[in-house]
Amino acid sequence: MTLQQLRYILAIEETGSFSGAAELCNVAQPSLSVQVKKLEEELGVTLFDRSPQKKAIITEVGAQILAQAKEVFRQISLVEDLAHSQTKKVHGSLRLGLIPTISPFLLKCFIRELVQKYSELEVRISEAPTRELIHKLNHGSLDLAVLSAPNEAPQGLIEKTLYYEPFFVFAARDHFLLKKTQVKRAELGELSPSLLDETHCLRDQVEGLCFGKTRVASSVQFSQGTLGSLISIVETQGSFTLLPALALELLTPQQQKHQVRPIAAAPAYRKVSLIYHRHFAKPSLTEAVYDAITKHLPQGVSTQVKNLESVIEPTLDRFETE
């Protein structure tokens, strides 16, 4: 049994296929398949059922062995980090995930300094919805994620609060909400905004913060996958939505001046955090990313805590089974 073989089977689990794993590991698929077969022969078990659809289905015993393989690499990471703990050296690879409603606005603020300051650090960045990022954190295929922590999560995730970001009302030019200089949350309770689709946690946050369960039906019932397209829909359909502060940069100066209103009387905001699994054994790397972000926060957000860690309460374990 070799570490390379373990890397291959973890890659198969992550991608769901031998071909995807080969691409991820930058190796020819026949070579990867041969190594996995040798591992299965050595262990005397079948790790994956090969389906006609070219999908690799993990067997029951395979799932147990994959869990132990993840633990092997967690322990290796711990040994490496302990070896460099005295010098606080930050090196190796970082798999960093961000949700789409944060990535375009935050990443550019800190990533250049991070890679310049730590020249031995290789950063792999992925952008995905909250649910997918949490799934990857829980399965060890992602190291850190920047997101707004959901209410439902598997066990073992740790949250370090980065900043608090307020929401603003953005409405079409002729919308009646723009007659006000400020909009109260209570005034939004019976209205139906345009929202992102269900894959985005921002949808749940907006509904949870400002809108009641019973709302007046709207002629605009539209969901979109990006903030840019959502803004276009608001304009063309004469509707409104809520935008996080950093997303206001997507608007033109004229839009920012005439079509944006603050939320008064208990303003609405979202908490953005750095999330990682409790088994992620690189505290120096976590601190490096945390410091890089908090030292270069863009205007429009505020830090109300410093270096606060908390365990995300597990209310659901559905992320573990997908």
Describe the secondary structure blueprint for this structure.
Layout: H1 3-15, H2 18-25, H3 29-43, E1 48-50, E2 56-58, H4 60-83, E3 92-98, H5 103-117, E4 121-127, H6 130-138, E5 144-147, E6 157-171, E7 183-184, H7 185-188, E8 195-196, H8 201-210, E9 223-224, H9 227-237, E10 240-244, H10 253-258, E11 260-264, E12 269-277, H11 283-294, E13 309-311
Parallel strand pairs: 3-4, 3-5, 7-11, 8-9
Antiparallel strand pairs: 1-2, 5-12, 6-10, 6-11, 6-12, 6-13
Keywords, separated by commas or semicolons:
3 domains, single chain, D-Maltodextrin-Binding Protein, domain 2, two-stranded antiparallel ribbon, Arc Repressor Mutant, subunit A, 322 residues, 11 helices, disordered C terminus, 13 strands, nine-stranded mixed β-sheet, alpha/beta
What does this structure look like?
The radius of gyration is 23 Å and the shape is elongated. Helix 5 (103-117) links the parallel strand 3 (92-98) and strand 4. Helix 1 (3-15) crosses helix 2 (18-25), helix 1 packs across helix 3 (29-43) and helix 5 (103-117) packs across helix 11 (283-294). It has helices spanning 3-15, 18-25, 29-43, 60-83, 103-117, 130-138, 185-188, 201-210, 227-237, 253-258, 283-294; strands spanning 48-50, 56-58, 92-98, 121-127, 144-147, 157-171, 183-184, 195-196, 223-224, 240-244, 260-264, 269-277, 309-311. The chain folds into three domains: 3-70, Winged helix-like DNA-binding domain superfamily/Winged helix DNA-binding domain (Arc Repressor Mutant, subunit A); 89-162 and 271-321, D-Maltodextrin-Binding Protein, domain 2; 165-269, Periplasmic binding protein-like II (D-Maltodextrin-Binding Protein, domain 2, 3-Layer(aba) Sandwich), CATH 3.40.190.10. The two termini are 28 Å apart. It contains eleven helices and 13 strands. The chain is of the alpha/beta class and 322 residues long. Strands 3, 4, 5, 6, 7, 10, 11, 12 and 13 form a nine-stranded mixed beta sheet that branches. A two-stranded antiparallel sheet has the order 1-2.
